[in-house]
Specification:
2 copies of one chain form a homodimer.
Chain A lengths: L2 E3 L24 E6 L3 E6 L4 E5 H6 L27 E7 L3 E6 L10 E4 L1 H6 L4 H7 L16 E3 H6 L1 H14 L1 E5 L7 H6 L14 E3 L15 E4 L11 E9 L2 E2 L2 E5 H11 L1 H9 L1 E7 L4 E7 L1 E3 L5 E4 L13 H18 L5 E4 L6 E5 L3 E5 L2 E2 L5 E8 L1 H13 L1
Parallel strand pairs in A: 8-9
Antiparallel strand pairs in A: 1-2, 2-3, 3-4, 5-6, 6-7, 9-20, 10-23, 11-21, 12-20, 12-23, 13-22, 14-19, 14-21, 15-16, 17-18
């Protein structure tokens, strides 16, 4: 029962309101469409083909009855629709957009008709070729090439959307970016973060001062060297992006060390698949406590997504609690942790730099481990300020810039 | 090479400093200990037995060289220790505590010796019986019994640690608790939340007003009925606990509906194992956007932990974005979502109540879905205030109360 419809009338339609504020360029039009009941097949003017399920189209109808005109949220309730949703007709609208008619949902009720903007539809196509085109992958580090960390200029980030987008894109894709040329004053970190949104408060406050303290509640507040680690591994959701701003760095030592955790995890998968599997499945225990809190969580060292891609690392020797594991996996877990730790210390996954006053590192706390060389507090003042940004807000800001 | 040591000297030892501020009652002493190289076996005075790996004991040494005396964090670096860690001797200390001696870590170096407090050790035992004793499970709802939701008194929560602990324990174990008797004024929600810690800000602010608005940016701000949903499913980590405080509720309608998502998920696992598996593995797309943000995430509808237990639910018809799935799983996913949705509407998993002014619901946004019946804004004023608390802070507060 395939029906092929030609363009039906000659009135021009510019764009169709999909109740979506994002920008979907109208770079392709629909050339032809065919309707096969549970599927609508769209042929684009560049020869590409998209196939949409009738249920998907029905679910994404953007008419005022199906999507709230102000809230922009779906009000259509699939659960109340017929079990089987069928498209009975489809046609190309003037302007190259799509119109679909569905089987009547109740006796005597007119069939529902939905219109889809071609720009929106092209960007929401879920055929294999389209999903492959959209796929995002983190950019691997070449630690020998000096391309890591990418750098951005403070003034560009503060004064232009282009500069801001460049900073955030580097954060997202490389997992690390060095910002230069900021006034080396306390609090500047918050002004820069304000370009994105509110910082994420934790048990260390919103902005914390990394200085050597006489009575520290955490190892960061001592002058000792810090092994590569991710921050706040003891939180149910550790912070996403970490900012580390340099106010002063006159002491001897104290170099920053950054490690590509994704690279190290892949090396572990290669050299010790069993160890990798164990770290990717066995939750282990983390904890931080002081006078004002006692925050604990259990999570695997390496988190992989449904496709097996490494998406986040939790590694922190100070915050690792007494492991509470079944007896049989205790030794294999220690062995795997040790193997991963050695890889994290391997220079091929590391970069080192000494932050200058007015410089700020931003890095992905789910990907990049950080550490520091010991410093001698008697040789000069060292003062960094740290804080965290939610990934949700970083990516949201990028989308708003794109929206223009 | 097993060695059994008797109590070695007669000086009494009260407690051993494990650099841990939590309370570990000294309710059992070690009666005997034997040392088998890679394992130390502890016999308790009540007949229980614990077996500890030498590497675990070494890793948890709390001496000032291995654990920072002020930061209380581990400074021992397992990665630098010998590949194989062996205990060469173990003895029971006066007071019933444990001392272990390890094989020398380098030629000529004296063997490291670690002491373990018996109270601490008992609570960190990872033998099967001990792990089973400590296991926490959410309490299942009996929606017919009127035990749901448990209720607590505002004054008790505000003025006593016992009342506060009762409130937080109910939140943790039942996933829902009704607080009664608060002053029905805007802002009170924040004073109550202050008993735990700072509320979690989101794109809706820290405290948001649930009222019917002329130009709403979300369906919550209309008078329409709301299907059961979890909040902020579009965030990488949706909020943990939700607070919903009633300032006024004079309009006709607007009952609150609460659904035990764990119960519904188990019912799905029972009735449609394939659908359950799909929802527990296939990430789907969520999105909220308005003039100020565009926040998107992909995550499975049902999250299960390493043992297969359901730990969180994401379900929200407004925030579900256009699904971006491989063609072959699109229809099965819709089918499974529909089946789950029907279960979420099933009264056997639901409770309904109409909030009175000065009442506040607190519920676990990972377990409990909430919804509301439509209301008629022309019949009276309806004003709720909402906000979120991090689970990390809720559980931390409970641990601090226990610490005393």
């Amino acid at each position: 029962m395939a029906t092929v419809s030609a363009v039906a009338d000659d009135e021009r339609i510019g764009r169709i309101d999909m109740r979506d504020l994002a920008v979907y360029p109208m770079d392709h039009r629909i050339a032809a469409v065919s309707c096969g009941g549970d599927r609508v097949t769209v042929d684009w003017d560049d020869g590409r083909q998209s196939r949409f399920h009738a249920v998907w189209l029905r679910d994404n109808c953007a008419c005022p009855a199906c999507r709230h005109p102000q809230a922009l949220e779906r009000s259509f309730l699939l659960v109340d629709a017929p079990e089987v949703i069928r498209a009975t007709a489809a046609r190309v609208l003037p302007g190259g957009h799509l119109e679909v008619e569905f089987e009547s949902e109740a006796p005597g009720e007119p069939p529902h008709r939905s219109r889809f903007d071609a720009g929106w539809l092209r960007r929401h196509c879920y055929s294999d070729w389209a999903r492959a085109e959209r796929a995002w992958r983190p950019r691997p580090w070449d630690t020998g090439s000096r391309s890591i960390p990418p750098t951005v200029d403070y003034r560009a980030v503060m004064n232009s959307d282009t500069g801001l987008a460049e900073w955030l894109t580097a954060m997202r894709d490389w997992g690390v970016v060095l910002l230069r040329g900021a006034p080396a004053v306390p609090g500047e970190i918050q002004r820069i973060a304000g370009r994105v949104g509110p910082m994420r408060p934790t048990n260390f406050g919103t902005v914390y001062d990394v200085v050597s303290l006489p009575n520290p509640n955490a190892s960061a507040y001592t002058p000792i060297g810090l092994e590569p680690h991710t921050d706040l591994a003891n939180w149910r959701r550790p912070p996403d992006y970490q900012l580390l701003f340099c106010v002063a760095n006159e002491a001897v030592g104290g170099d920053s060390i950054l490690v590509d955790g994704y690279g190290a995890a892949e090396a572990l998968r290669e050299s010790d698949p069993d160890g990798f599997r164990l770290l990717a499945t066995q939750p282990i225990d983390f904890r931080f406590h002081d006078d004002g809190c006692d925050i604990r969580d259990r999570a695997p060292t390496i988190e992989v997504d449904a496709e097996g891609q490494v998406v986040s690392i939790r590694f922190n020797n100070w915050l690792r609690a007494a492991l509470d594991l079944p007896e049989s996996v205790m030794e294999p877990t220690y062995r795997a942790l040790r193997g991963f730790w050695k890889l994290l210390r391997d220079p091929r996954f590391q970069i080192r730099l000494k932050l200058e006053p007015g410089e700020m590192l931003a890095f992905d706390n789910a990907r990049v481990l950080h550490g520091r060389a010991p410093f001698d507090p008697s040789t000069g003042h060292r003062h960094l300020q740290g804080g965290y940004l939610d990934r949700d807000l970083v990516l949201s800001r990028l989308r708003l810039i794109e929206r223009g």
